[in-house]
Amino acid sequence: MSLSSVLLVAIMGLGVSKASLLVPSPRVDALSCGATTMSPGERVIIQSPNFPSNYNVDDRCQYELTCTPKESTYLEFICPTFQLESSADCTSDRLVLASKGDRQEKCGSDSPDGTVTADGWARLTFFSNAQTTSKGFRCYVWCREQTTTSTTTTSTTTTPTTTTPTTTTPTTTTPTTTTPTTTTPITTTPTTTTPTTTTPTTTTPTTSTPTTTPTTSPAC
């Protein structure tokens, strides 16, 4: 048995699990400005200069975090404290967070809390101008492994389909018998016209009786 195996058995006998030996311990001290390499499961702290006291004017600090292997990991940010000078479009004091495919400018109380990067790399740059200062920020950054989803392919068995032949029963057509229609002839009764008898009118001749006028002789 190798020495490392003996040590592992001895440690496990003390109640320390093997899994806990593989997880890096969180770094207690805040990182200095500059580049830092992390391992999956490791946590680091970044904060503004002089934190928890106010940061100085005209200050600048850049942190570059790389979690290896970069392609299969990501970074997660939790920022319980974030107090910078507020300004429109964050043109004064600000924290710029750049990661793969993303760039954020944070100021005032708008922190990067909850940000998750696309891979295991990020660069954070802190700027302060020559005017107002504030308490600053403190963020915890975790290096985490990306979850790999395995795809299971299920083979499909195709059962051949048996086609039953269809029997067609011939249709018997019953001939239709047509009964001839008998037409009854219409009998026309001739109309008898009764001749009209004209009675001749007899004209009675009128007899004129001459009127006799008496003649009176003059008196002598």
**Low confidence ranges:** 2-11, 16-22, 209-220
Question: What structural category characterises the helix and strand content?
Answer: mainly beta
SS field, number of helical segments: 2
Q: What is the helical fraction, as a range of percent? A: under 10%
Number of strands: 8
The sequence of SSEs as H and E is HHEEEEEEEE
Q: Average pLDDT value?
A: 77
Q: What is the strand arrangement across the widest sheet? A: 1-3-7-5-6
Intertermini distance: 219 Å
Radius of gyration: 63 Å
Strand content: 25-35%
What's the story with the biggest beta sheet?
5 strands, mixed
**Principal-axes shape call:** elongated
Signal peptide: 1-19
Keywords: Disulfide bond, Repeat, Signal
Disulfide bonds: 90-107
Region (Disordered): 151-220
Characterization of this structure:
- The chain has 220 residues and is mainly beta.
- It is built from 2 helices and 8 strands.
- The chain has helices at 3-13, 18-22, and strands at 34-38, 43-47, 60-67, 73-83, 94-99, 102-106, 121-127, 136-145.
- The strands form 2 sheets. It has a 5-stranded mixed sheet, with no helix packed on it.
- The longest helix is centred in the N-terminal third of the chain and has 11 residues, at 3-13.
- It is elongated, with a radius of gyration of 63 Å.
- The relative contact order is 0.17.
- The model is unreliable at 2-11, 16-22 and 209-220 (pLDDT under 50).
- Keywords: Disulfide bond, Repeat, Signal.
- Residues 33-144 form the CUB domain.
